[in-house]
Amino acid sequence: MATLVSLISFKYMNKKYSFIAIDLQNDFTSEGGLHYVKRESVDFLTDTLFPYFQEKGMEINEIISDYRQPRQGDTSDCCRVGEWGYESIIPRNIVKSIWIKAMNSPIWTRENIGDATRSPGLPYQDTKGFGQWLKDNIGNPGETTPVLCGLTIDCCVLSTLQELSWRGYYPIVLKEGVDHYSGKIEDRDKMLETPVPNWAEVITWDELKNKL
């Protein structure tokens, strides 16, 4: 259950990669968060991946969640705008732009999304708006390869992979950069064996660095 998306774009040998980090908000990543369990990917992201981005001067765009009630079919009330649980753990100095979603899939938005001073409306689908955000910040299908990390591989990361694939992208999942909602490595690895390969390639950090 998570949906915060972060994205870093860079070019090497005329090949463009766009890194997307999803739902790295305190309610999922930090002790005391409403949906926190210890997840190894968070340490990898904060200790290895984000410092690497900072060293290389990469910019990050992120997708985060506004999960205030009301939401159809989901009684969870977390990632409340203006509260600690809503805040992202990604260093602010590498964030380029943000897409905020209201459900597991990134195409769902709502009136007053991300506005702590106003009551949120019911979630609805904004496929055109999300498509424009992808075009402006990630690039067009065939021109860029999205590389995803974040939480969780059995919910929000998976939903984003599916949406990207259906839009003509060929995304990659960074193995060390994702986790299952349970926090168990064996549960993560089962997802990465199946069904994730139906929509994305799975790659390790060492393998990815060799491609850059």
Task: Provide a descriptive summary of the structure in words.
The chain has 212 residues and is an alpha/beta fold. The protein has a single domain, classed as 3-Layer(aba) Sandwich (Rossmann fold), CATH 3.40.50.850. It is 28% helix and 25% strand. It has helices at 26-29, 40-56, 127-137, 156-166, 185-193, 205-211, and strands spanning 5-12, 15-22, 59-65, 95-101, 108-109, 124-125, 145-151, 172-179, 201-203. The strands form two sheets. Strands 1, 2, 3, 4, 7, 8 and 9 form a seven-stranded mixed sheet that branches. The chain has a two-stranded antiparallel sheet with strand order 5-6. Helix 5 links the parallel strand 8 and strand 9 (201-203). It is globular.
Overview in brief:
The chain has one domain: Isochorismatase-like (Rossmann fold), CATH 3.40.50.850. Helices cover 28% and strands 25% of the residues. It is built from 6 helices and 9 strands.
Ordered list of secondary-structure elements with their pairings:
Layout (H helix, E strand, L loop, with lengths): L4 E8 L2 E8 L3 H4 L10 H17 L2 E7 L29 E7 L6 E2 L14 E2 L1 H11 L7 E7 L4 H11 L5 E8 L5 H9 L7 E3 L1 H7 L1
Parallel strand pairs: 2-3, 2-7, 3-4, 7-8, 8-9
Antiparallel strand pairs: 1-2, 1-3, 5-6
What attributes does this structure have?
globular, 7-stranded mixed beta sheet, two-stranded antiparallel sheet, Rossmann fold, disordered N terminus, 212 residues, alpha/beta, 6 helices, 9 strands
